[in-house]
Amino acid sequence: MLLPKPPPGMQLPGPAQLAWLGDAVWELHQRSRLVRYQASAHQLHRAGVDHVRAEAQSAALEFLEPHLNAAELDWVRKGRNAAGRGPRRVEPAIYGRASGFETMVGWLYLCNPARLQELLSHFQDSTLDGPV
């Protein structure tokens, strides 16, 4: 299987940078979904925070894992291994899985946005992407 390559002239960032980007992409996905609900900005903010925290990202990865190919799983592993311990409020295993998820999302955003959209579409009818 040929892996998607970054755009010409662009060197692929490392796992930490991809996780940073992936976190922003996931948050934008959640905000784009939540803005359709009739709610105050405060309610939308609280719902958004709940959907982008490490526990939610770890659950999102668990939901998507059956749909991931070998290259995507490899980026999850790279991100998980680069994660470090994380904040005290989150178990290290959950933080690592969330970091792996973010890394994969960041990589797909740069290298294969169509595949990223395909994977994100799995959340449309999921309780993980539930209402405010």
How would you sum up this structure, described in words?
The protein is an all-alpha fold and 132 residues long. It has one domain: Ribonuclease III domain (Ribonuclease iii, N-terminal Endonuclease Domain, Chain A), CATH 1.10.1520. The chain is 64% helix and 0% strand. It contains 6 helices and no strands. The N and C termini lie far apart (40 Å).
List the helices and strands and how they pair.
Layout: H1 15-34, H2 41-52, H3 54-64, H4 70-82, H5 92-111, H6 113-120
Helix pairs in contact: 1-2, 1-4, 1-5, 3-5, 4-5, 5-6
Give a quick account of the main beta sheet: strands, pairing sense, barrel closure: none
> Strand percentage, roughly?
under 5%
CATH class: Mainly Alpha
Helicity, as a percent range: 55-70%
Count of DSSP H/I helices: 6
Residue-averaged pLDDT, rounded? 85
> Total strand count, please?
0
Q: State Rg.
A: 15 Å
Overall 3D shape: globular
Structure, briefly:
The protein has 132 residues and is an all-alpha fold.
What brief labels describe this structure?
132 residues, 64% helix
